[in-house]
Amino acid sequence: xxxxxxxxxxxxxxxxxxxxxxxxxxxxxxxxxxxxxxxxxxxxxxxxxxxxxxxxxxxxxxxxxxxxxxxxxxxxxxxxxxxxxxxxxxxxxxxxxxxxxxxxxxxxxxxxxxxxxxxxxxxxxxxxxxxxxxxxxxxxxxxxxxxxxxxxxxxxxxxxxxxxxxxxxxxxxxxxxxxxxxxxxxxxxxxxxxxxxxxxxxxxxxxxxxxxxxxxxxxxxxxxxxxxxxxxxxxxxxxxxxxxxxxxxxxxxxxxxxxxxxxxxxxxxxxxxxxxxxxxxxxxxxxxxxxxxxxxxxxxxxxxxxxxxxxxxxxxxxxxxxxxxxxxxxxxxxxxxxxxxxxxxxxxxxxxxxxxxxxxxxxxxxxxxxxxxxxxxxxxxxxxxxxxxxxxxxxxxxxxxxxxxxxxxxxxxxxxxxxxxxxxxxxxxxxxxxxxxxxxxxxxxxxxxxxxxxxxxxxxxxxxxxxxxxxxxxxxxxxxxxxxxxxxxxxxxxxxxxxxxxxxxxxxxxxxxxxxxxxxxxxxxxxxxxxxxxxxxxxxxxxxxxxxxxxxxxxxxxxxxxxxxxxxxxxxxxxxxxxxxxxxxxxxxxxxxxxxxxxxxxxxxxxxxxxxxxxxxxxxxxxxxxxxxxxxxxx
Amino acid sequence: xxxxxxxxxxxxxxxxxxxxxxxxxxxxxxxxxxxxxxxxxxxxxxxxxxxxxxxxxxxxxxxxxxxxxxxxxxxxxxxxxxxxxxxxxxxxxxxxxxxxxxxxxxxxxxxxxxxxxxxxxxxxxxxxxxxxxxxxxxxxxxxxxxxxxxxxxxxxxxxxxxxxxxxxxxxxxxxxxxxxxxxxxxxxxxxxxxxxxxxxxxxxxxxxxxxxxxxxxxxxxxxxxxxxxxxxxxxxxxxxxxxxxxxxxxxxxxx
Amino acid sequence: xxxxxxxxxxxxxxxxxxxxxxxxxxxxxxxxxxxxxxxxxxxxxxxxxxxxxxxxxxxxxxxxxxxxxxxxxxxxxxxxxxxxxxxxxxxxxxxxxxxxxxxxxxxxxxxxxxxxxxxxxxxxxxxxxxxxxxxxxxxxxxxxxxxxxxxxxxxxxxxxxxxxxxxxxxxxxxxxxxxxxxxxxxxxxxxxxxxxxxxxxxxxxxxxx
Amino acid sequence: xxxxxxxxxxxxxxxxxxxxxxxxxxxxxxxxxxxxxxxxxxxxxxxxxxxxxxxxxxxxxxxxxxxxxxxxxxxxxxxxxxxxxxxxxxxxxxxxxxxxx
Lengths: 635, 255, 209, 101
Ligand code: HEA
Ligand code: HEA
Ligand code: CUA
Ligand SMILES: [Cu+2]
What we know:
The complex is a heterotetramer of chains A (635), B (255), C (209) and D (101). By secondary structure, chain A is mainly alpha-helical. Chain A has 18 helices and 4 strands. Helices cover 61% and strands 2% of the residues of chain A. The relative contact order of chain A is 0.11. Chain D has 101 residues and is mostly helical. Copper (II) ion binds next to helix 8 of chain A.
């Protein structure tokens, strides 16, 4: 008989078979509890899974939809990248666009513009925001503050059901005469006003999406402020909750001006008004019949008044996720939690007064440009503070390199690169050369792709066991991470070079005919190949994801309720907390801050927010699943 | 750093460009220092505090407040960048050159997908223009009856300048927003219908057969990618010679 | 904080804390905070339109005087109608707080009536413009006039739907949860006053200047 | 103030509402009357906005009982008003501070 192996759980040593037994027991008890709670209240399938009012299911609806849109937005760009690397070359795969859009497999310039506009729109409004706010916010925030649900469950449902039609309208616009919107995601008039019908669809779609976001943000703010569990003071919020709170305020107050702008543009397109149309326009030789007297810059102001705060909507939840994962996997409190919170609030506030840094080259005078440059430099400081605090949090930790942690760690330098390259853009004088070049594209992709997307990946790997009761496979997770990290840099790093060379963005042929673009143009091949490899790198993730969802649906669980030994309330709830029956058996009471890891003098290295007696062992088996897995592998 | 960036950038043939490049270099220094500094720290920390080497985390964490100095440092450098560089540079960018410097005045009318370059001719006066007069032969809508229009020259996609002489380009557009970009001159300015925005710069080098380009930087429709013009910078004599070979638009139209 | 005490399951319908009674530390019930947040976003919506109006107006040489083009007496009448409806809705709320459903309903009905009058007058105004071949596309003055009053009209319409609901099927809640019903009327009242407030600024800026 | 007011207080509030209503009606009449004076545009804007602001104050302060509202609501509204002001100012200032104009 082989000698009995021991493994460490917290500070205790257990025999492997003992541990396995404990784990099975923990999972069994949970399942039983869940069954008990499900009992007696059969709900129709439709109420439960389609028009659900449960924040967890709505979060999952958002999540699935947004992931599909993410993949779709990525696919559009993959097609565009073929054209960028090998202009006017025929590709079999481009035939999927149809004979009118890509005759003989060669993409038309109109098509390129459509795909570009839709890539931007889909990524920002239909993929990242719904994933970061709609999915993670919805699922995690009520759990983390110890609430039974969102404050207005029906409104929550309505929010999803505005998002989906908005998304479908956007997709449907590809089939409109003239195809989808093709004036960039920024939709600058007059171009967008004289554009084909797809633009009208785009505007209508935006109205739906804006409505959805407004409903969502009201709900989040009320939930966070009103439904906090007993003892959950603001300074005991996990950073993720703070990030979502600030985000909601940004959505609430910045989106309406875009809604107004969308209405005005709709009027210009449909009712023939001239809000954005100056007098005396001559388009392809014909004098336009509009009354004139409008101002095209008005749109830009209203658009950026939203779109700048929007970019912080893209980043704040990501920072929130990273903060959770970092604290958990360094096994120590976040460094400078208070300054991070202060910085996030200040960041949100400032984001309303920097918008015109996207408009330096619209003829800005010295005074107004000085104002917006100054605010732009000021707003970089809170980002620096947050990032610095995260870096400092690593010091003295006991760092576990699991998949969520890898993604969260990679977020730091990647966001750093993106943020740093924002600085030369924020100074009007250096923006002259860089504006509307690939430098800008590189800047923001570093923040949203290896930045936000990586943070979202971290979040998916981190909360997957909470949602499903299964851990995602670590090995394939790491493969996914390393390949993604390499290839995503392959796509975006050369953009800085291209931008410095002066290659304009939104060029159908990637600048092939410009002499000044010539040396840098060649990197397009590397970038496109990297992009396709990046797609391939997602395969392990997608398989890993669906396999484990499938196994979870079959009821095969391998994770306890708190597999990461985390301290926040989301881990106090059972695994996949039952739908529509509240989140907690007993409403939790909060006794301490969010990140009490490695508190000296305690047996376990984590002290959950809701555990009253510090000496009691944390419920739910803690490190068991991981430890068992290690032991099994080693045995 | 400036030299390093220059390896990736187009040459700089303007009087003000070097200042802009200086600013760019200083910002990139700041970025580099932060990037390298934090990256080294990051790698060190990941190695030093990995769980296998450091099984018990420290509750208190970092005690040093060096990072606050780093943050303050960033803030100070940003103030310097703003006050010392960017704001004064922008103020120069928007202040028009004095008439006494005899700047070359040009109107530039963008349209889908080309650049109409309108020279005032010998009299230095731009003729009256009117959208109603726009036609395929009269792209900027010159009113040939206006005396000021008699000697005006209109060319397409070709911008001729004189080295050493300041130029004021009055930029506007007939249809949608374009952006007039001269990478070698470090000049970029949106061309916005309904507005006429004057940018000024001084070319200091002649193009001498090199291909210098006007690029359109703002998405303006399906032909955005091919809205390319050429820039020629001549010596004074060559410029005069070129000018004398041009037929005024009115004469070309036969009126 | 008793709302925390009974765990939120076991009932058919999930109970959300502070749905009816204010949370002690904020002093607000959920919907009250919710409606104010919503109104804040509405401020930004109409704010953007006012910003557009200012920019368009300052951007052209001669912006017409509203009183030369629009029907001031009719709009004045509408202003009275709308402020009357604001009073009736706050009286409805007061009656409900006094426990008088019948009176509350009468005031609600009056509010609805005022809203209806407002819309009818508006329809006449629009109709007379259209019959003179004046459309949003005529010039930017009319463009912004139709857009802003149109959007405001949609808000009035929305309010009417809500009031009609609370007069009809929505009133059933009074039987089971009078406090919650009263809150609901307070909340729609807040919305309604906001619609009034917007008109108070629209009226002079469009008609009187 | 919701809920816990006594009937007497509510009746008193009701009287205030009616007074506010009267005030609004009078101010409406005034602002319309002033418009017939055809003041210079600057003056007219000033007067009209001044009167509208008073009316707005009455509606928000009494009908929406903002005067006795909670701090949280004040916070939200102050933030909103600030951003609203920024939104009015930005495009307008840019319009005047365009070089070459
Ligand atoms: C998540 C999105 C996001 C974020 C967070 C940011 C952050 C910033 N952005 Fe960016 N930006 C966009 C998304 C974003 N941006 C998008 C989408 C566009 C283009 C839109 C379009 O035109 O289509 C854009 C465009 C854009 C422009 C317009 C450029 C142009 O069109 O010419 C400007 C100009 O000021 C700008 C500035 C900034 C600044 C100063 C920050 C700052 O907040 C950044 C502050 C952060 C730092 C300063 C990093 C600090 C780092 C460290 C201290 C440590 C570093 C360590 C290591 C690297 C190891 N951005
Ligand atoms: C949030 C915003 C966002 C994101 C995430 C991205 C992601 C990417 N973008 Fe995009 N981009 C924009 C916003 C974004 N982009 C915007 C606003 C523009 C400007 C548009 C305009 O000009 O108007 C733009 C423009 C733009 C251009 C310039 C085009 C031009 O100027 O002509 C390019 C060029 O390469 C590009 C490339 C990419 C690539 C390769 C990615 C990759 O990083 C994508 C990587 C994606 C993944 C890795 C997702 C994988 C998906 C899954 C794993 C889902 C799995 C599904 C299930 C499990 C169900 N983008
Ligand atoms: Cu013209 Cu792009
Ligand atoms: Cu920005």
